[in-house]
Amino acid sequence: MAQADATMMGGAGASSGTEKLVTAEGVPLKRALERAQRRRKLMAFALVVPLLAFILTVFVFPIAQMMWLSVKNDQIVNAIPRTLEELRDWDGRELPDEAVFAALHADLMEDLERPRREQATGPMGIRLNYELSAARSAVSRTARAASGFEAPYKEAFIDAHRLWGDPELWRIIKREGRPLTASYYVAALDRQYDEDGRIVQRDENRRIYVSLFGRTLMLSVIITGMTFLLGFPIAFYMSILPMRHANLLMICVLLPFWTSLLVRTSAWIVLLQQQGVINTGLVTLGIIDDENRLSMIYNMTGTIIAMTHILLPFMVLPLYSVMRTIPPSYMRAAKSLGATPWTAFRRVYFPQTLPGIGAGGVLVFIISIGYYITPALVGGQSGRMISNEIARHIQQSLNWGLAAALGTMLLVGVLALYWLYNRLVGADSLKLG
Amino acid sequence: MSDSSPDDGFVTFDRVQKSYDGETLVVKDLNLSIGRGEFMTMLGPSGSGKTTCLMMLAGFETATSGEITLGGNPINSVPPHKRGIGMVFQNYALFPHMTVGENLSFPLEVRGMGKSEREQKVKRALDMVQMGNFAGRRPAQLSGGQQQRIALARALVFEPDLVLMDEPLGALDKNLRERMQYEIKHIHESLGVTVVYVTHDQTEALTMSDNVAVFDDGRIQQLAPPAVLYEKPDNAFVAAFIGENNTLRGKVDAIDGSTCSVRLDNGSVVKALRVNVEGTGVQSTLSLRPERVVLGEGAAERPNSFEAEVLELIYLGDHIRVRMNVCGDDEFIVKVPNNADGRDMKVGQKAPVGWSIEDCRALDPS
Ligand SMILES: Nc1ncnc2c1ncn2[C@@H]1O[C@H](COP(=O)(O)OP(=O)(O)O)[C@@H](O)[C@H]1O
Ligand SMILES: [Mg+2]
CDD domains annotated for this entry (chain A) (predicted)? Predict the structure, then answer.
């Protein structure tokens, strides 16, 4: 029987004239394998699809949207195409001539014919207002009155709103009359365009964002350092405790995760405010005077304290998981070789915790650099971070373009830092659990 | 181990006890003296307290009571890094973030030794374990046997007087283990260093040691050179733990100087050497090595001779193990050389077995 099979297979191989491997049924081995694995690939794909779809809809798509918002600039182009056409040869010095005003009038009249919801002058006014305050009222007031205008339009426009007589407004219209813009990024970097269209620094007292980025960076570094200083001994102690006690301590570390943000924040306020527990205690003990109560909240100190508390688990968990895997025999070996406990720690134990320190550090740093809610609640003015400014532009000033530009810069900055970390340390050395 | 040697008590344990939890003693009343240059093995089943003893000597555990001395000085309060004791750990404990060379250099560095001297010593130590070309490798790039050698070299590179090894060969396969046993023995002889070696493998203990301390239940059951341990076990535990052993149980009938007669449970009376029996009427375990039992011809002339039945034959190449029923014991083993007589044996066959008095030791009842 086996003999017969072998001859048959031999015959088939000889007749096809190739050296291809075939299965016992005569199917080429490669094809059989592919078929066998197709099911498994489909299965794997089906398992990943939900997550992929979820990430696409809630993560990749909104981020792409945000990046697009930071350069999108169609408000003016949509509203006054003829005017922009006329402005093309304008030198940007004197007020534009009558032809431009006539074109503007035509554009406004056309816009008035459109159904209310499609009217483009409203968005244009908002857009111009980002660059020049009062521009919005100039546009809206003029648009309402434009149907009564007679030639010469120049005077009519300037009568309706004096801003039309300001070359600055026209320079802005010309500059931003393009579908894409860099002006949000210019603003996000505390710069502006001067009369010649060059990018220059803003006045000292109007620079906010660069120093805010700097402060955010500094706070993140401080918070990362604080969580490390507090977390390292805790993680070390947990790693040498028996599992049962370690778990108990772990619960204490994780407690901030399980308490509502408002409870946590109220607790900090109760503790830290001027009439709070700590200040009152210090005054009662006579350590500080009643007039010199410490301000530890609604400032940078408040942000640092509260965020260190909240982010501590992100440092402790990776550290702990790395330390658990370091057998105590290393320290013993080092000591038996003559190293003092400190030398043994420094030369043998500590270097082995570096993957955990790296992971915890990157985690805490990246989370804190984009942290929003805690600085908003306890940070006051001096403890604000860049995300608070982004939130302000989204919720109050409604300048989404600027918010998007700031957000994109934050994202790029984090990616760049991560890239740098990866170059210096290597991401594969990270150990998150 | 004569009292005249000045180096007799290089390491001593004096009435040492150890408890981890305050309820049970893991080490009970340990008295031990190790001579300079000696290869002393602590042998015993898992959990018998060997590692604990070693850790107390190394300084990683403190003795609950009693005193340990090293070179005549009590070391109970000397921290581990000041004891100058080399140690080989079971999992080697080579520092993973350092190369082999850095691992070996570490003990010299912390002693403040200069660079050129360090390099020289590291090289010599690596050559000693035939790993001269591996200084630049990381421990993870080495096989188990190679890591073992490096661990050994690291424990010796700073020239300690005493080296402790806790089951250093436990993770190696059989062939490698046997080779390493000879190498460690060889290094011990050429360096003259004192070694305290822990193992649960009796063959390893017998092969390597000058003296073996057999541990059980936190006590030293017997302390003796390997040959004595095998030939003359002091008690039933040692007899059963070291080598193969036939045990017969019974009650001591009569004592006659250094011999005694023991009535077994089935009524037969066996004459045995009196080793560890308190008096007549007490229970006793008789210990008898399988290779000392004569089967068939010549058995009848022995002082102890009984009719036995062959229950099972196990062919082992150079010899045949015969399981027999002797005096009511079904597990009685006799070793027969693989010759014409041995091959002719059949299951169910009856044959006389016999042994001399001095080969049969009457021990405690356990
Ligand atoms: N660190 C420790 N804490 C508590 N009990 C321990 C500790 N180390 C060992 N023991 C107990 O002490 C006994 C002896 O252990 P050990 O010295 O390791 O024995 P061995 O090395 O002979 O196997 C065991 O019962 C073990 O459970
Ligand atoms: Mg042990």
Answer: TM_PBP2 (cd06261)
Q: Which of B42, B46, B52 to mutate to test the pocket of ligand 1 (most atoms within 8 A of CB)?
A: B52
User: What value of ipTM does the predicted structure carry?
Assistant: 0.84
Choose the mutation target among A322, A337, A350 for the interface with B, i.e. most B CBs under 10 Å. Answer: A337
Nearest by CB to A329, from B91, B106, B110: name it. B91
Question: Closest Cα to residue A307, out of A389, A387, A373, A235?
Answer: A373
- Condensed to tens digits (0 to 9), the pLDDT of residues A155-176 reads 999 999 999 999 999 999 999 9
| Residues on A contacting B at a C-beta cutoff of 8 Å | 327, 329-330, 332-341, 343-344, 347-348, 351-352
Cα atoms in the 13 Å half-sphere on the side-chain side of B20: 11
pLDDT digits (tens, 9 = 90+) for A9-20: 444 444 444 567
pTM of the model: 0.80
- List chain B domain ranges: 11-236, 244-363
Using omega within 30 degrees of 0 as the cis cutoff, is the peptide bond preceding A28 cis? Answer: no
DSSP H or E stretch at residue B220: strand B219-224
Q: Could you tell me the pLDDT band of residue A427, with boundaries at 50, 70 and 90? A: low
Count of all residues that appear for chain B in the document = 366
Q: How far is A226 from chain B (nearest CA, A)?
A: 27
The pLDDT tens digits of the residues spanning B50-81 come to 999 999 999 999 999 999 999 999 999 999 99
The four Cα atoms A24, A29, A31, A33 give a dihedral, to 10 degrees, of 100
Dihedral over Cα of B86, B91, B94, B95: its sign: negative
A345 Ramachandran zone, left/alpha/beta (phi>0; psi -120 to 50):
alpha
State whether CATH 3.30.930.10 applies to domain B244-363: no
Burial class (CB in 10 A: 0-12, 13-18, 19+), B181: buried
For the domain bounded by B11-236, which CATH number is listed?
A: 3.40.50.300
